[in-house]
Structures are given as structure tokens and as C-alpha cells.
């Protein structure tokens, strides 16, 4: 009976929904990678992997990853009905994530030319690294936004947005490759 009660709890439904959306998003990502590898060929696909890896490495080294902490505090403050503090925690999460992701972008922009010439031996790839890293400040808003949706138990929205994010990205990548844009 304890298992039945746990399975009927609203959080269990949310957990199953989020897990399913993450598995579907991972499947879409896998399909995108396979199609991209086929359309680009091994050399260009490898170059894309390295072009993306360098900014991602710097981004992950500089990221504060405030989502877990803000989820805890948002949930606690929501339960206490502390609106002003809740707003402050959300703002702090957004500002910290945005500042650190902007720093990562600036660092990539400052070093991409050196990495592309001396590590990749592909000087034309520097602007692609910078263009990819330019998305960091925009994507930094996702962490605190996910924390807010999680804390307010908006699991359907969160699942839908995860699938929408992956779907848009996959559609753009495959569409642009089919249109002949290559890397």
C-alpha cells in the first residue's frame, strides 16, 4: 500500500513526466548527432565536435550552476509565503548565471583565435567558437527558470520546454545542414 500511495502522489507523476521528456530529448539529440555525422562526414563532424567542446569546457568551468541551490530556496520561501525574498533569490540566480556565462563568452572570444590556430590548426573555426559561445548568456536564464518551474511544481511546462528546446535545436541543425550550410 505504501508503494501505491507513493505512485499516486502528484510528485511521482511529475518525476515520471520529466524522466520521459529527458529520455525523448536524449533520443532526439542522438538522432541529430547521427544525421549530422552522415551529412557532414567524419572530418567535418569531428571539427564541429571540437569547435563546440572548447566553449563548453570553459562554460562548464565558469558556470555557477545555481539551479539546485535556487530550487531549494525558492521552494522554502514559497512555502513560507515570503514574496520579497523569493523574488530576490530568483533575481540573484539569474544575475549570477548571466554574469558567469558572459565571462565564459568573453573568455572564449578572447582565446578562440589562439585555440583554432594552435590546437585545431583551423583558423577559420575561431568565429564559430565565438558564435557558439555567444549563446551562453541567453541559455544562462534556463537554470533559474527551471528552478522556478520545479519549485512551483509545473512539471508539464518543464517537460514541454525541454522537448521544445531540443526539437528546435535539432530542427535547426538538420535543416541548415540539408540546406547546404555545412559547418
Topology:
Layout: H1 2-8, H2 10-40, H3 42-62, H4 67-80, H5 83-118, H6 126-133, H7 136-139, H8 141-151, H9 155-178
Overview of the molecule:
With 183 residues, the protein is mostly helical. Helix content is 85%, strand content 0%. It is flat, with a radius of gyration of 20 Å. It starts with a helix and ends in a 5-residue tail after the last helix.
What is this structure, in a nutshell?
This protein has 183 residues and is mostly helical. It has helices at residues 2-8, 10-40, 42-62, 67-80, 83-118, 126-133, 136-139, 141-151, 155-178.
Fraction in beta strands:
under 5%
Helical residue percent band: over 70%
User: Uncertain spans, ≥5 residues at pLDDT below 50?
Assistant: none
**SSE pattern:** HHHHHHHHH
Which sheet architecture does the biggest sheet show? Answer: none
CA-based gyration radius? 20 Å
Briefly note the structural class of the backbone.
mainly alpha
In one word, what is the shape? flat
Distance between the termini: 55 Å
* Annotation, overall tally of beta strands: 0
Number of helices: 9
What is the averaged pLDDT score? 90
What attributes does this structure have?
mainly alpha; 183 residues; 85% helix
